[in-house]
Design goal:
Layout lengths: L2 H58 L15 E7 L9 H18 L3 E7 L1 H9 L6 E3 L8 H16 L9 E11 L2 E10 L5 H12 L20 H82 L1
Parallel strand pairs: 1-2, 1-4, 2-3
Antiparallel strand pairs: 4-5
Helix pairs in contact: 1-5, 1-6, 4-6
Amino acid sequence: MGAQQRVFKAKINSTQSLRKIFKAMELIAASRIQKAIDRVHAASPYASALTRAVAAVATQSNVAHTLTVEPEEIRRAAVLVIGPDRGFAGAYSANLIRKGEELITLLRQKGKDIALFTVGGKAETYYTFRDREIRQAWTGFSESPTAEHAAEIGEALLADFHRPHEEGGVDEIYLVDTRFVSSVSQDPQYRRLLPLAVVDADEAHADRGHGAGAGHPAHDEVFPLYEFEPSAEAVLDALLPKYIDSRILTALLNSAASEQAARQQAMHTAVENADDLIKTYTRMANTARQAEITQEISEIVGGADALAASGADD
């Protein structure tokens, strides 16, 4: 076997090995997507009901709660970037971080300091590599988040929200995550989590319609009249932390489903590219083999002609 054929044979073997890895990762991601989608759907009714309850209290009472009152001056904003722990998901991480940088730039243009929080190893690595201070980071559960993870994150964010500015507290909180639309479409987005706005009730309906496959929101629906015991403020104190945890969990679940869908797409493309490379290297190896055969035949014919010519001279 010639030198060129050995080179092409080695390339074909290595590409075939990579193709097996890509195919395995594609199948694993495909098997996890439906489970992730089911978790998004399962969490949507609770999140919608909780949002409606909070909106009802906010609209039916005049309580000025710390989580719903807009501060007079916003000097520092917390930004929670929810990304993946692993790569091999195409442009998923890059698109998410680009959306986060867009939000951070916008906030800084308004003169606000940034307190950065991250979920997932990719986001943490990105900001650490660029010497950006991260106040707190969570890793290890981007593909399978739980309510406990959301509660831990929510507790840390609320602690900073209640802390005075002089002690490093924040005046508002933003989420940067990826909304799962379908297996072929995932939208990076950012939105304000706190202070809470009453319009979040409509937003929750819209989120449910996109994320859970529900019908269109009923914008003309009217809330009934409520009486709150022991008081509207006590009800808000009990509901708002659960509401924050629910919003964070919904963002984590949507991001997990988006990650698996993006990884399946990326690995499917990688398998197709590997197949194209194998075909190309096979053609090039065959061409090299034909060239070597032609050269050998030419050398044999040339040698025979030389022997015939020398015999004639004798």
